[in-house]
């Protein structure tokens, strides 16, 4: 598997409660506060129950993937955010679209966020040191234990149902609601929907094509992996006016609690109903896949109807949709898919 949520599902490191409470008392001038605060208490529902956000909450720390982009897209600088590594082109610890917005808000006078490393588990002391009023984690894979520990630091917003299965609209809705900016969040969703529609309008050949997001190792083609509809990457295909192939939909329906699935290459015919495959990797990988006696029989691969999005590049990271990554990469992403759809059309002509 080239990249997956598996690395995100590592348990958080245990930290003594005393250390957490001590960190909560650190200097509140670190990080940045929001430009607005709710005048009344807000209740946000999620997988672990509900979280009460106190009136006046104005300081937000975001963890995991993409939650900080919700705050930034609403012109609120997070006090802290998780350092990103996959898809980052420099040593900033931020994906390109995140860094652009952080630089913009910093130039306007906001304090830059603290970045903390959660590669091997959440750094509770570092999170607590940002003195958050609220912790945003609507898109995450928090365990009950991690949620409970974070909730001792500040009210925490978890995902709605499935770990790492929060769709981009739900991430915006949950995080913006917790920030007291629900109406602004809805406006942001509408704006993004229009940007997607504009991008898709320029590539009508993708409409109605069946598609899903796949992953495969060119050095080990014994398995073919794909993300289910629980994962935002495959779910995004419907935003593009495409359909989910029956093979992927069945796995998604049979086990809605998982976001990925592997198929033995001996059963490659099980995904023969995919018109277009979106996949991590480079165009140069196609020849090796086509030459494989099993994988090469999949029609999309045989005909070259594969949209390779790179591996560990900013564009490959942008395929996991969010409020800043969508406008940053949508045109290039749709163009890649459209080129693959052209090959599918040529094969069926």
Brief rundown of the structure:
With 349 residues, this protein is α/β, with parallel strands linked by helices. It has 13 helices and 12 strands. The chain is 37% helix and 15% strand.
Q: Gyration radius, to the nearest Å?
A: 21 Å
Number of helices: 13
Question: Share of helix among residues?
Answer: 25-40%
Low-confidence stretches: 1-35
The separation of the N and C termini measures 34 Å
**Strand-pairing-aware structural class:** alpha/beta
| Overall 3D form | elongated
Fraction of residues in β-strands:
5-15%
Mean pLDDT: 89
CATH architecture heading of the largest domain: 3-Layer(aba) Sandwich
The number of strands is 12
Biggest sheet: strand arrangement? 5-4-3-6-7
- Biggest sheet character: 5 strands, parallel
CATH 4th-level superfamily of the largest domain: Nitrogenase molybdenum iron protein domain
CATH topology of the largest domain: Rossmann fold
Number of folding domains? 2
Helix-strand topology string: HEEEHEHEHEHEHHEEHHEEHHEHH
Per CATH, the class of the largest domain reads Alpha Beta
């Amino acid at each position: 598997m080239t990249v997956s949520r598996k690395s995100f599902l590592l348990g958080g490191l245990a930290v003594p409660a005393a250390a957490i409470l001590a960190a909560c008392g650190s200097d509140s001038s670190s990080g940045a506060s929001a430009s607005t605060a709710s005048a009344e208490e807000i209740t946000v529902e999620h997988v672990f129950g509900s979280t009460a956000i106190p009136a006046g909450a104005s300081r937000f720390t975001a963890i995991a993937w993409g939650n900080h982009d919700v705050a930034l897209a609403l012109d609120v600088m997070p006090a802290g955010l998780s350092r990103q590594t996959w898809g980052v082109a420099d040593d900033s610890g931020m994906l390109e679209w995140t860094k652009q917005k952080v630089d913009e808000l910093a130039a306007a006078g906001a304090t830059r966020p603290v970045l903390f490393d959660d590669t091997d588990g959440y750094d509770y002391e570092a999170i607590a040191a940002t003195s958050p009023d609220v912790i945003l984690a609507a898109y995450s894979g928090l365990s009950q234990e991690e949620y409970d520990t974070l909730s001792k630091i500040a009210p925490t917003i978890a995902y709605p149902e499935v770990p790492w299965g929060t769709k981009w609209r739900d991430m915006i809705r949950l995080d913006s609601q917790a920030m007291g900016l629900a109406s602004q969040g809805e406006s942001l969703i509408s704006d993004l929907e229009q940007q997607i529609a504009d991008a898709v309008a320029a590539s009508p050949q993708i409409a109605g094509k069946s598609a899903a997001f796949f992953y495969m190792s060119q050095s080990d083609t014994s398995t073919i992996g794909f993300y289910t509809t629980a994962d935002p990457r495959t779910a995004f295909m419907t935003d593009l006016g495409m359909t989910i192939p029956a093979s992927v939909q069945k796995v998604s329906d049979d086990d809605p609690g998982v976001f990925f699935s592997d198929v033995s290459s001996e059963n490659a015919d099980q995904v023969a109903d995919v018109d277009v495959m979106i996949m991590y990797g480079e165009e140069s990988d196609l020849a090796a896949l086509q030459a494989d006696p099993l994988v090469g029989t999949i029609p999309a691969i045989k005909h070259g109807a594969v949209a390779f999005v790179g591996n560990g590049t900013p564009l490959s990271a942008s395929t996991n949709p969010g409020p800043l990554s969508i406008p940053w990469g949508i045109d290039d992403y749709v163009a890649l898919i459209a080129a693959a759809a052209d090959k599918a059309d040529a094969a069926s002509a």
